[in-house]
Predict the 3D structure of the following.
Amino acid sequence: MKITTLPLDSFNSLAVGARRYFLLQNGDKPVIAPSECPHRGGPLNLGRRKACGAKLVCPWHDNAYPTQSIERGALPAIRRCAEISIVTGNEDIRVWTELLPINQGQGACEDAA
Amino acid sequence: MSSIDALLNNNKNPDHAMLEQALSRFASHPLFDQPDSFYCDSPYLRPVRPQDLREFNFDSVLALAELKQPSHLMAQRLLLNIYEQDLIFLPQQKKLHLEEFNAFYDEGLRGAGAAIRPMLERHVFGWLDSEVSVSGNWDVDTFKGYADEVLDRVARTPSALLDCIGNSRNPANAARFFLIQCAGDFLSEASAMARNVLGNFGPAQSELFKILIDEYGYGVAQKKHSVIFESLLAECGLNPAVHYYWQFYTATSLALINYFHYVSANHRHFFRYLGALFYTEASLALVTRAQAQAMRIAFGDTVDTLYFDEHAHIDVHHGKMAFEQLIRPVVLRYGNQVLPDIIRGFEEFRLLQDVADAELFAHVAWHDELSQWRPGPPPALPAGARSHPFHECRDDLSVTHVHGATELFAVDKGTLRLVCSPFTELNLSAGQHVVIPQGLLHGSVITSDHCSYTVTSLE
């Protein structure tokens, strides 16, 4: 088991071994969510928000997933002030930053339009 | 708008007005009002400076960066008074004043305290909601792995307390100030824990009870942890009476005591309590060796460090018991749904401990600085600096407090004694000044027939 502690502003994507995750901004509770859509493996990290942020929509087939159910597959993590500690197996971890539309304009609700 | 202004101007929200009345009633009670000394000779006299109520709005939630604000100190003092109305205190050295006893436990006062408690808890602990969060798919072994790593880091990190005391200009007084910060908790040690042993929650209840009876010395007074701590205080030249040094507790030391009451008084937070208990028991097993060493540096090798040695031993068991006999069975029985709160309690108490340590070290550093104080020219004032003049008479005492900004404290006429700890006092006369950093405890008493002084913000 490995604990990795990172500044929250230092990354928004990571790979643990072969699996990819992204930092899902969820109010005060950031979630290290799996990037792979459970349907056909689409890039959930490139999806959009629905129902005022309560659901994520996969860009491939428009399947919408409640944030709560995404969190069930998320890596165990604890945020303490401006840092987050992530618990993983002993696989290699890579982190990077990319443009994630899903974390842009969280206040806007697609359903409200 | 201050709490009192809100009361005076409130003609719309009767609930809010009632809350403000309860706040004023509780804080202004004679037991908590103006004392005639910096030291509390009775366990029921616990000054909170009610004259400052007008300046504070307890409806707001303080941020982590705002914990040096004076409303934090006042709210923590008020909360400890409220929580401790549930505990029994009787003076051990002095005579019992039955009227004080009756007043402290008065039903009306308890009612007022109960009414304002949630607002105060939100004011001082609400920030934890935004600074600590738990997410993802945890199970009990993942948590154990995380906790082991955190505790291993605690074990490997050199003791900052040892550095602070060892490097102080006066290690004995630095150690005494540290012991005073502990005294608020250790002299009624595990009282919050006792709130959690009633009811019926199966085998885990009996495991918690075992920890409690260790803390309480198995019914043998000399073995009780608080009694062992009283002996240490006396040996180090301190008064072991409960809350004798009430005015010298920092806000974040009070927060450590109050957090355990907070998560224990309302059993909705029981799982947070379990996490916090685990962190404190497991980490104490690691840090008490350094605390014992700090006592030897301060007071010599002959000082009896039994209090810390006892914890270095028994808390190894308590840490293991808290996890293996309490947390693991509770999670197995009630599912991973209870884990986020357990982990949150673990992490919240760890953060509170770090914040309290930093505040203690800042106080010791300032006390060291003041020990070198010499009269000198005043610093340049920022443009538009706001000043407040005060005119007081002989023996007028200003209960210890903190300022939300760094301030210049200058005596214009007469003399006074500035009291920053029981061992750090400055006698100032007309024309002399001192800079009081933001958030550091101090009080004053006038030593001439009349005295005028001015406090000017340097920010």
Summary: Chain B touches chain A at residues 64, 129-138, 142-143, 145-146, 149-150, 343, 347, 350-351 (CB under 8 Å). The two ends of chain B are 22 Å apart (CA to CA).
